[in-house]
What does this fold into?
Amino acid sequence: MLRLTNDDAEARADDRWEHGSDFHWPVEDGDGRFPWGAGTVTLWGSGRDALRALIAQGRERLGWRRLYCPSFYCQDVVAALAREIALVVYAESPLRPARVLPRTTADEVLLVVNVYGRRPRPELPGDGVVIEDHTHDPWSDWAFSSRADYAVVSLRKTLPVPDGGALWSPRSLELPEERAPTAEHAQACLDRLSAMVLKAHYLQGHGVSKDAFRSLAVAGERAIATGRETSGVSPLTRARLAALPTTSWREARARNRAVLCTALGDVRGVTVLDAPFAVTLIFDGDGASERRNRARAALADARVYATVLWPLEAPVVAGIPAEHVDLARRVLTLHCDFRYTADDMLRVAERVRRLCTGS
It folds into this structure.
């Protein structure tokens, strides 16, 4: 084993917050609990692959012609959906969920997204098809008792797996048939898995450079996010899913969020948004976007790598309200991964308070 100085050890501890490779590879078994229960589920290369496969089936077999999606949503996903069907945006943000969802006709689809895991469960209107995206909180009461036609989650957003999306129908409707991973997707999974394993070795003090896993993680994530073909899931994720300790991991994330929120307290010029997915900072007041950007850069210099969910400056479909674009410029998300300790969270909170206050 490589001998570490105190500075080296601290750097490795801090590097756990790096977005894109924060999920280093754990080997831990449990009783995987998922909202589809013992029902039928199909697994895909990603959440967007699951959505694309479903929409393609609906368009070809059921005559679906239009999909309504929320304005505050990942534009990479929106771009993938736009390849399959005509899109219309409806106004909704994490701070202002739509009180009345669009009423749809039988050949239209409504996509409802539980952004940050904090959206109140809505009444489902209209005669059209409803798809729910539970990626940010797959274990909510809403996900387990969904009455939507279809539901989807992106597995790699909350679980330490290299890929994966799950699609099921709470109403037991027909699902698209699974398929094998594409060659492009298989390479992306290999890159991400290699990054996860290398990062685990790095954090343990072995002779692995940070760049060795960072470049692989970034390349793998980008390939999964932008893959042209709809792909099936990797054999590794399929094999591991049922044995993951999802309940204890979710409880650990909740404990970490509570510690972080309490330690943050009141931060001048910042609203702290606690949600099941993560803790999100919303910068308020004059120059909020610039202060967010400076704080993000300063945190990165301190090896705390926050995430922007999601940039909306280059929308795929017109109709995103200006206030939602502005909100996206002011948000910064701090992960509360289940492998972090309370001391980790306290250290992050101290740096956030110091740097945000001085930004």
